[in-house]
Design brief:
Two copies of one chain form a homodimer. The first copy, chain A, is an alpha/beta fold and 530 residues long. Chain A contains 16 helices and 27 strands. Chain A folds into three domains: 195 residues, FAD/NAD(P)-binding domain; 171 residues, Polyamine Oxidase, Chain A, domain 2; 87 residues, de novo design (two linked rop proteins) (Up-down Bundle), CATH 1.20.1440. In chain A, helix 3 packs parallel to helix 9 and helix 3 runs parallel beside helix 16. The longest helix of chain A has 26 residues. Chain A is globular. The interface between A and B is large, with 136 and 135 residues. The structure holds flavin-adenine dinucleotide (2 copies). One flavin-adenine dinucleotide binds next to helix 3, strand 15, strand 21 and helix 16 of chain B.
Chain lengths: 530, 530
């Protein structure tokens, strides 16, 4: 069937041109595929309504606030208890005057210029995180493009290529050239005769010539794609491409995670960031919910099931008093390492899962500097350079392009790299990132000033970048996905989109659907414990 | 020597970690390479100064205005004659109320909403066009990111894959997967034993596994990079990648120019556009130069060398009178097909070059529409979809992301594609682009309204997108690069960066350097004709 359709369209096309072919296609109902997307916020209001039911939500991160926002639409009476003075949790933008205080008692005060900031936690949004993008639209958060990949950025392995960095455009295109040359050779030697027909072989070789930008005799001799030694201009100024970097050097460089970074499904263009900082998202939620729903500086200290619902004891840190709130339901979005230390009467299975679930660490180190990476010499406007070693990358800012000053990340390390980095004293970590930037941008290390470091494993009320599930199917994941009586769980750790706001919010949506279903079964006291 | 340095650094690295390796590198003076860049504007003021010398410049495109701007800094007394009411030439932004009038007498009036526009000519700036970017900084033109590549955009060949479009992420990553699988197989069969040592072979296969996202047994079975059939979410919502598109289908699709477009050196991220439209650049030049220098609606009709300099006759279209201006020097930036028709006493060699130099055509067709390409279904925010056929591409707007309405290009065709498209009546061209968009975005064709078409070969005072030199070394190119006595030539056609503002301006810089050198030799009448 597809074959006959195709040949029909082909015949139409040959006779009547492309325009006729399109008409035929449409007549046959051949439609564009679209990505499956089941992630619209649940419409609880349709289901019956939560009027009269009280819900207490623990934590005013995006999970907690999205839960309150949607439950509110269905008439539920929500209160959020948030330990910090600010909302947003791991969505945190650091600006002039902000303090980074960590569990070791250290305290850094940000002294950057007005208008400069770093997104200490969440910093980018891919095009397919439609739940978050949808809330940006609903709540009026203005977005701008986050430049996640620049062909002018660098790859730097201090142990390879004499410690000289290689431009991204060079690595990407020289690699493709070498791979194409080798495959074309192998095909012409007959090595793939079992896999390819004579016709296929010919088409493949023609394709590889284009793909790798090979010479007519099928060698890769360098390509303008990989960068120009001399930029073209007027008169006799003709473009001269660089000589290709050898495959051996590229293999030694061994930074394929950097070369392929822009292909990671969550990192693919187009990427976004809110104008002015990622915390515009929690700010918009907090403004929409208002202070009657969000109680700041209220630290949850005890969690109890009462038979009719829940009783939460908390410390009002502003007033310096202890208080209690009762509700029919609870949603906890407190990160697990924090929750594990709170006095709670969770079921043994829930408690065990909460206590043993591992969280990963993450470190960002940011500097203020004049934008030496922009302009004629480096021509880097946003994007990431990748580094072998614990600092992992250099991240150039996507806001304020072409202005005087910027905030550049000298390190953004997760997992093992973060653990390695964390072994150095903070001052050494900071100086290490200065050296890395100096190695990529000689003479510029001294332009870096006012460093700020955040280590998420040591940030109170967070204690990690996010969960480190060993697989997609951990029993503890499923355990925490089930409510403990009237207490539901939500947050980044309860999704398959770990360490993204999208995952946190989708887990919140799931929790409120379950809560709403539970509510429609009648009073909690009469319900079977799930 | 490099080897010993490298092993030294390696030894240091092994003993003292990455940080020590960086210190050693810096001690050894191993520096980052940077791109050669000789394109700063010439500083004529240093050379001596042009006080008292008069220059008449023909055309207020970016070449003419950049020439006047730099000559003015050195004291030259410049006048620009510009035939149109607007400046900018091929840098032209069309908005509500603007008219597109063509040589066939047709006239389209733009009726889009306030704030909507299309860049009918120049539309993007790569990071390495540092001359243009430098003027944006100098003249205060605010830039924003132009999204030149979106992994969510489409490739559509109506004669292949049953006429179904393929997402860019799928084509890019499935192609890489198949190529990697084939090469790994060939290596393991020993086909490249002459080229690779045993050690190389092992490293290559390990690399190809990462590069192509191959299975442990070295097959390409699809990859999350190529897109998800099911997006991950909370609970049991695990990501499910698409099945891979076969190599045969990808070869049939035959849109490698689209797949590799973002690797074209002038198209690589980061790309820019001025906020509000590309004409912000000529507007900034025109504002800096002022109406005393730029005479609008003055159509050059005759060009004469006088022995002491030049005499230019023109028609003041506003006043409806003929006039003459004399000057010591002239710079013509009038596009060649237009210049060829002007009465001028150029040397025979210059005249011949001007008359026979071919220009290429280009067509853009733009529609206003609600942004159906954004949002959950298509998730396309800026970028280009590529189409086999004369309309060539669909270009999604990079401004106003996440707003209600946008202007989308249904066609941007150059060269042969433009010639093919131009064979249809304008109304048919426009309807063709509606069909193409409908084929990619079923049901959305009817949302397109208020089409505007511009065919540059038929735009008065331009008559083409730019020059079509057959090679990098045409005798006519060199001929026009030499002045004809006091008359110098500049413009896009006199550079190796054809059809870019950067080339036009670099040719202007070259011309004023020659003019200034000529001036410092004394009066033109006494000079040897070059
Ligand atoms: C370094 C880093 C980079 C990231 N990058 C991205 C990115 O680029 N894009 C993206 O979308 N996401 C990113 N993420 C992930 C994203 O930030 C999280 O997934 C998301 O913000 C988690 O939301 P949450 O509501 O589940 O948890 P949280 O934001 O942690 O919210 C939990 C809330 O509970 C509060 N709380 C804790 N203890 C108590 C208590 N005892 N009493 C009361 N309240 C308490 C906390 O103060 C906090 O406000 C990143 C995260 C980090 C750390
Ligand atoms: C469709 C298209 C897409 C492009 N895309 C890009 C892009 O993305 N980025 C980029 O940087 N560049 C792009 N360019 C190229 C860029 O626009 C040109 O290279 C550049 O603008 C040329 O400048 P110029 O000054 O040489 O010529 P022009 O801009 O053509 O200026 C010549 C001037 O002479 C005037 N003139 C003509 N005849 C007379 C006369 N008889 N009397 C007086 N004045 C006269 C004209 O009105 C005009 O103002 C594009 C161009 C086109 C057409």
């Amino acid at each position: 069937m597809p074959v006959s359709r195709r040949s029909f369209i082909h015949a139409v096309g040959a006779a009547g041109g492309y325009s006729a072919a399109f008409t035929a296609m449409q007549a046959l109902g051949l439609l564009a595929p679209s990505t499956a997307f089941a992630g619209a916020p649940p419409d609880l209001a349709k289901g019956g309504g939560g009027k009269g039911a009280k819900v207490v939500i623990l934590g005013a991160g995006v999970a907690g606030m999205a839960a309150a926002w949607e439950l509110g639409k269905a008439g539920y009476d929500c209160t959020i208890l948030e330990a910090r003075a600010r909302t947003g949790g791991r969505v945190w933008t650091v600006r002039k005057g902000d303090k980074i205080e960590m569990t070791d008692g250290s305290r850094q005060v940000c002294q950057w210029d007005e208008g400069q900031y770093m997104n200490a936690g969440a910093a980018r949004l891919p095009s397919h995180h439609q739940i978050v993008l949808g809330y940006c639209r609903e709540l009026g958060v203005e977005l701008e493009v986050e430049v996640n990949a620049s062909r002018s950025a660098f790859l730097l392995n201090p142990m390879a290529n004499d410690g000289k960095p290689i431009r991204m455009r060079t690595a990407i295109n020289d690699t493709r050239g070498h791979v194409s040359e080798l495959l074309a050779k192998a095909i012409n030697k007959g090595a793939l005769d079992a896999e390819l027909t004579a016709d296929d072989k010919q088409r493949m070789v023609a394709f590889l010539k284009t793909y790798g930008d090979l010479s007519p005799d099928l060698f890769y001799k360098g390509s303008e794609r990989a960068g120009l030694k001399i930029e073209p201009g007027a008169g006799d100024e003709k473009a001269v491409p660089f000589d290709p970097v050898s495959l051996k050097t590229l293999l030694d460089q061994d930074l394929w995670n950097g070369v392929l970074f822009e292909e990671v499904i969550d990192m693919q263009a187009t990427m976004f960031q809110p104008k002015g900082g990622m915390d515009m998202i929690p700010h918009a939620f907090a403004k929409a919910l208002g202070p009657k729903i969000i109680k700041r500086r209220c630290e949850v200290r005890q969690i109890r099931k009462t038979g009719k619902g829940v009783k939460i004891a908390y410390r009002d840190l502003a007033a310096g008093v202890d208080a209690v709130i009762e509700a029919d339901y609870c949603i906890s979005t407190i990160p697990l390492p924090v929750l594990a230390k709170i006095d709670a009467d969770f079921s043994p299975a829930h408690k065990a899962a909460i206590t043993r679930t591992p969280y990963r660490d993450s470190i960002k180190i940011a500097w203020q500097a004049p934008r030496f990476w922009e302009g004629p010499k480096y021509q880097i406007y946003g994007g990431l350079s990748f580094v072998k070693g614990p600092s992992n990358m250099v991240w150039y800012p996507s806001y304020g392009l072409h202005s005087k000053t910027g905030v550049i990340l000298g390190a953004y390390a997760g997992g093992r790299a973060a653990d390695q980095l964390a072994k150095m004293p903070r001052a050494d970590q900071i100086e290490h990132t200065r050296k890395v930037i100096e190695a990529m941008h000689p003479g510029c290390g001294k332009l870096l000033e006012k460093p700020m470091q955040v280590q998420w494993g040591a940030v109170p009320y967070t204690l990690g970048i996010g969960v480190g599930w060993a697989s997609d199917d951990e029993p503890d994941y499923h355990q925490l996905g089930r409510p403990d009586g009237p207490i539901h769980f939500a947050g980044e750790y309860l999704s398959h989109v770990g360490a993204w706001q999208e995952g946190a919010i989708r887990s919140a949506h799931r929790a409120i659907v379950m809560l709403d279903a539970q509510h429609r079964q009648g009073p909690v006291s009469a319900q079977r414990v799930i």
